[in-house]
């Protein structure tokens, strides 16, 4: 099975002390991805994680703590976008009817050869050219188990 791409919100919830059940589910998912070496992210996700953890969560982290998390996450398969990815995302906004930033995530996940995109920002079960969106926070989700194909 291919990589599993994590969107910003999943990673942020894993480290947000005020996120309750979402924190637990996100942590279980990240632990599984670490264990099996299946995690993938993009530079965009890493940038957004840093900003969210230091400025947007209820209890913001120090720059050094957030930097350590980003450094750890950067050891996963990390997609570094190039100009062609930007153009593909622009095209994807019309093709799939998603925002530009969501399109960048979809393009990065596909570039990572991911089979799953973990996010709460797109519709659970939606498919984008073979990439399946999964929301680890929906009722009945089992983020600590690999999704069925």
Give the overall form.
globular
Quaternary structure classification: single chain
Which structural category fits the helices and strands?
A: alpha/beta
Average pLDDT score: 94
| Strand adjacency order, main sheet | 3-2-1-4-6-5
What's the end-to-end separation, in Å?
Answer: 9 Å
What characterizes the major β-sheet?
6 strands, mixed
Order of helices and strands: EHHEHHEHHEEE
Our count of helices gives 6
Number of strands: 6
Low-confidence stretches: none
The helix content, as a percent range, equals 40-55%
Strand content: 5-15%
Cα Rg? 14 Å
How would you portray this structure in words?
The protein has 149 residues and is an alpha/beta fold. The chain has a domain at 3-80 and 112-134. Helix content is 51%, strand content 15%. A six-stranded mixed β-sheet has the order 3-2-1-4-6-5. The protein starts with a strand and ends in a 15-residue tail after the last strand. The mean pLDDT is 94.
């Amino acid at each position: 099975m291919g990589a599993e791409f994590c969107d910003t919100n999943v990673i942020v919830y894993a480290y947000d002390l005020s996120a309750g059940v979402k924190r637990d589910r996100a942590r279980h998912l990240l632990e599984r991805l670490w264990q099996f070496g299946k995690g993938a992210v993009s530079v965009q996700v890493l940038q957004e994680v840093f900003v969210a953890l230091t400025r947007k969560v209820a209890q913001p982290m120090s720059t050094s703590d957030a930097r350590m998390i980003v450094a750890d996450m950067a050891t996963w398969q990390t997609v570094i976008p190039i100009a062609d990815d930007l153009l593909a995302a622009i095209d994807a906004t019309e093709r799939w009817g998603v925002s530009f930033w969501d399109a960048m995530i979809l393009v990065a996940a596909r570039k990572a050869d991911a089979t799953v995109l973990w996010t709460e920002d797109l519709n659970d079960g939606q498919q984008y050219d073979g990439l399946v969106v999964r929301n680890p926070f929906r009722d009945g989700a089992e983020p600590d188990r690999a999704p069925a194909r």
